Each structure stands twice: as C-alpha cells, then as structure tokens.
Amino acid sequence: MDEIKLAKKAMHGNVNAYGQLIEMHKLYLYRTAYLYAKNEDAALDIVSDCVVKAFSSIKTMKEPKYFKTWLTRILINASKDYFRSHKDQVPYDDLPLSAPEGEVSLEEKWDLYAAIDILPEKYRNVILLKYFDDLKVNEIADILDIPEGSVKAYLSRGREELRKYLKEDYIYVQ
C-alpha cells in the first residue's frame, strides 16, 4: 500500500497503518536522528520520542501526502527537546575509531561534526538535511516551514561558515 493511503488510514486511527508508515521510514528516522545526536543511544531515544509524539498527533496532520515532511519536522523538534534535557551529553562517542582506506579519518570527522555543531541552528539544520539526508531545497523548505530562498541563503551562509572553521584542503564544500 502506498504512503498516502497508509497516512489517511493512520489519521483515522488505524494503528497498523501507522506501524507500516514507521517501518517504511525507520532507517531514515534513525539516520537523521544520528546526524543530530552523533550517538546511537541518543538517536534511538530521539526516534522513540518522535514516533510517540507523531502517533499522538497524527490526526492533526493536514496533508497525508506530506507525511514524511511532517514526521521529519517532529523528529527535528524531538532532537531539540532531547538536547535541552541532556546538556551533559558527550558527543562523538559512537564514531568508528579508524577510517577505511580512502575515507575521512576520525579526527577529520570530529572536526567536521564540531564545525557543524557550532553553526547557528538555522544553518546547521539545512546543512544536515541537504548534505546528510540528501534532500532537495523545496523539501527542506517544507520540513522547516521556511521559503526556498531562505533555505538557499542558509545553505550558502552555512557553507561559508564551515569554510571558515575548516581548512580549505580538508573538505570540499560546494
């Protein structure tokens, strides 16, 4: 069954349809939460909170065709809530200790994650959604509920900030 039909059923209280929707998006949810948390346990907590919050408010979703966008918005808010209540969180503890040949080293990953972490939130969100979740500008605009022009400006400014934080020969930021 397609996502729109499942979303409509879930909006009418069908728990099985909601479960199928979550099953369809569980890897995406985890990957996105991990990008924010950089820790497996925290990412799982965030996804769990997102799934519960989404279930409790699914009847308020306006358009079933935007289920993933709506769910991503809830996930981002669940991430923010998690870090407000876990300020003592130590980041980067689940990164692999060694990089395979030809990949970025652990130190370089830490540098990149640290640079992303110090970006203003509006830049960090668009950078993560664009380059880590591979979303298009219009999808990011829908998720964050901002104009596409703002997404483009935030991407540009975010990349510029990253360039300031990172050596130019370390990472290619388009």
Features:
globular; Arc Repressor Mutant, subunit A; Rna Polymerase Sigma Factor, Chain: A; mainly alpha; 174 residues; DNA binding; 2 domains; 8 helices; disordered C terminus
Describe the structure concisely.
Keywords: Sigma factor, Transcription, Transcription regulation. By secondary structure, the chain is mainly alpha-helical.
Descriptive report:
- Residues 111-162 form the RNA polymerase sigma factor 70 region 4 type domain.
- This is RNA polymerase sigma factor SigV.
- This protein is 68% helix and 0% strand.
- The protein has 174 residues and is an all-alpha fold.
- α4 packs across α7.
- The radius of gyration is 17 Å and the shape is globular.
- It starts with a helix and ends in a 9-residue tail after the last helix.
Helices and strands in order:
Blueprint: H1 3-11, H2 15-37, H3 40-57, H4 67-85, H5 106-117, H6 121-132, H7 137-144, H8 148-165
Helix pairs in contact: 1-2, 2-3, 2-4, 3-4, 4-7, 6-8, 7-8
Main sheet, how many strands, which sense, barrel?
A: none
Number of domains: 2
Segments where pLDDT lies below 50 for 5+ residues? 90-99, 169-174
Rounded average pLDDT: 84
